[in-house]
Amino acid sequence: MQEVVDHEDGTLGGLRLTDGQVVARRVIAVATRMEARTEGLAGLKLPVEDLPDAMGRRFASGMAGTTEVPGVWVAGNATDLAAQVGASAAAGALAGAHINSMLATADTDAALAATQGETPAF
To answer: Rounded to an integer, what distance in angstroms lies between the CA atom of residue 18 and that of residue 25?
Structure first.
């Protein structure tokens, strides 16, 4: 396809192909490319991955939003590009629960180590 062609009144007329032929159309459907918004996060060097069929690019993550970068989680449509508000909120809650679990475990390990006169390993 070379260009979209409009009628004189501004309504859609069709598509001009690269050979010059115009194919009349009343409607055109186009696929969009989805990309996670990453502005301001480049310094974290979070891994990203391309989706199949050039559908988009997202942050790569594991279960509960874990990433290869220690201490960094991702959630919602930064990692699941098609996620709507409800799914994004659920992913954020799951990541938060995982973070809370890890912090509680670290606190418990530190308290146990302190009672035994050891230095906790973090």
So the answer is: 16
